[in-house]
Amino acid sequence: MTKPAFDVALFGEAMLLLVADRPGPIENATAFHKRTAGAETNVAIGLARLGLQVGWASRLGTDSMGRALLAAMQAEGIDCSHVVSDATQRTGFQFKGRVTDGSDPPVEYHRKGSAASHMGPADVDEAWLRSARHLHATGVFPAISDTSLQAAIRSMAVMRAAGRTISFDPNLRPTLWSSPERMRQEINGLAARADWVLPGMEEGVFLTGEPTPEGIAHFYRALGAKLVVVKLGANGAYYDSDVAGTGRVDGFPVKEVIDTVGAGDGFAAGVISALLEGRPVPDAVRRGAWIGARAVQVLGDTEGLPTRAQLNEANL
User: Fold this and answer.
1) Which of 67, 96, 98, 174 matches a 20 to 30 Å C-alpha distance to 105?
2) What is the pLDDT averaged over residues 274-295?
3) Portion of the chain with pLDDT greater than 70, in percent
4) pTM score, whole prediction
5) What is the mean pLDDT of the segment spanning 272-280?
6) Residues 6+ apart with CB under 8 A from 291
7) Residue 2 has what pLDDT?
8) How would DSSP label each residue in 49-85?
9) Residue 271's closest CA among 248, 290, 247?
10) CA pair distance 106, 181, nearest whole angstrom
11) How far apart are the C-alpha atoms of 198 and 193, rounded to whole Å?
């Protein structure tokens, strides 16, 4: 059997991120720090820095933002052969404010009608996708348009038919869905196609109606997930697994929370990388919690994502 070309494949939108230089309302900022953003791209970068072979499929404009994002992803060693640069479309971007109290910062998206939102099932190159041994999907890409939703469903169907593993992070974006009810229905439908489901506590309550980590995990296990990890922020995480039973992993102490955005993506990169290395579930969740804790201590979404050397130094 031919060895897969990639460890992990991802579909998703990259956006240019402009982070305000000072706390307060975004409109009061006079300067911004330029970064990359996007749930799937954050995970892709996190996995690539840990030494995994990663392939990312997307669409970008040929504008300066698209060129900057493509260069940034290529610089991380990510395969971008299935990223289409479309001169007729524009690249999405977002503004992010600054906070000083550890709360979630304000975020303002400018992505409606973006290049990535025009992706559809025809953009799923099945041979390329099957050349990966794992697919990581989130609830963001399928939320940006009806065609991207169909592309997400198609990518998961291809990998399921090929016997590959699939992870799914709900990553709720209510402003991108027509209603909360549709968001709940579609996200849970996607979760039912995954092997590993990684909800946060708050979103898990919304999606399942269950008020406890145990109840949330049971809901997705009943849908067919082999592993559910419920992220509990500073309190770590709860897991429910076919092979490891149930348990809790403590969070890692953080001196100061700078920016919470991207913590869940770092957590996902930690869990996925460890599981693909054959590490036990508790170790994988612990790695995820460690990377998530690093992510909240930096300004952008990816600065806290560690290299393999840093991971080894931490003995994780």
Assistant:
1) 67
2) 97
3) 99
4) 0.95
5) 98
6) 46, 266, 267, 269, 270, 304, 305, 306
7) 55
8) HTT--EEEEEEEESSHHHHHHHHHHHHTT-EEEEEEE
9) 290
10) 24
11) 13
Please give the average per-residue pLDDT across 65-69, as a whole number: 97
DSSP letters along 140-194, please? SGGGS-HHHHHHHHHHHHHHHHTT-EEEEE----GGGSS-HHHHHHHHHHHHTT-
* Residue 235 identity (one-letter amino acid): N
Per residue in 103-124, pLDDT (tens digit) is 888 889 999 999 999 999 999 9
Nearest alpha carbon to residue 149 among 174, 117, 181, 194: 117
250 as an active site residue: the answer is no
What secondary structure letter does DSSP report for 37?
Answer: E
28-44 per-position pLDDT tens digit: 999 999 999 999 999 99
Tokens read off for 128: 């390329």
CB-based contact 76:49 (threshold 8 Å): yes
Kindly calculate the radius of gyration of the chain based on its CA atoms and give it in whole angstroms.
Answer: 18
Helix axes 180-191, 201-208, angle to 10 degrees: 100
The answer to whether residues 123 and 57 touch, using CB atoms and an 8 Å cutoff, is yes
- Residue 103: per-residue pLDDT: 80
Which 8-state DSSP code applies to residue 112? T
- Backbone CA torsion sign across 141, 142, 147, 153: positive
Q: Which residues contact 43 (CB under 8 A, 6 or more apart)?
A: 10, 136, 138, 169, 265, 268, 269, 272
- Amino acid letter at 116? A
pLDDT surpassing 80 at residue 178:
yes
